[in-house]
Amino acid sequence: NAETGTGPHTITLTSEGPYVLACGTDEDGNVDGDLDIDADDAVIITHPGPGRAIIEVDQTGGGCDTERVLDIVAAESVRLERLVIRGGDLTAVTGSVESGWGGGIRSVSVDLELDDVVVEDNRSADGEPGPVAALAAGGAGGGIYVKAASLEIVDSIIQDTRAGDGALGDGNNGGAGGNGGGIAIVDTAAT
Q1: pTM (two decimals)
Q2: Is 133 helix (H, G, I), strand (E, B) or coil?
Q3: Among 61, 98, 105, 157, which residue is least crowded by beta carbons within 10 Å?
Q4: Residues 103-155: tens digit of each pLDDT
């Protein structure tokens, strides 16, 4: 967790890595699993280049289907620069509508900016049968899910991401999805 104080807080990943995240227990205190951002100020995670630093969920030995890569819990804003975000898989996550959304990155109420970032090989949860239509419809934001905040993507690549299927149909927004905020995409490829 970034400390309270005068921001922005800058985390510089000096190596290309990979920085491998162990499969965890869906907590928000950086005890295990995904990287949780919980700060009062702006946060920047960057790699000085050339190239990009890789942050990934460990998928060896049968894989992990309960972790995203980055969970933005609170911050003034978050900026990611020269990174690869990959391997998030939430296909075994059940429960609330949004708990399994955003396989690579989830940001709720925090503005997010990606600059020269690759988001790849991430998957959101499948929907669940039952009375809640949002769950039954399938997952959202296989790569990125942003709610009640803005998302700006510049000079980036979103590829090989998938939103989970549901009882009422296929998931939506495999690359990037969300609601309640604006999305700006500039010089970015999505496949």
Answers
A1: 0.84
A2: helix
A3: 61
A4: 899 998 999 999 999 999 998 887 665 555 554 555 677 888 888 889 999 99
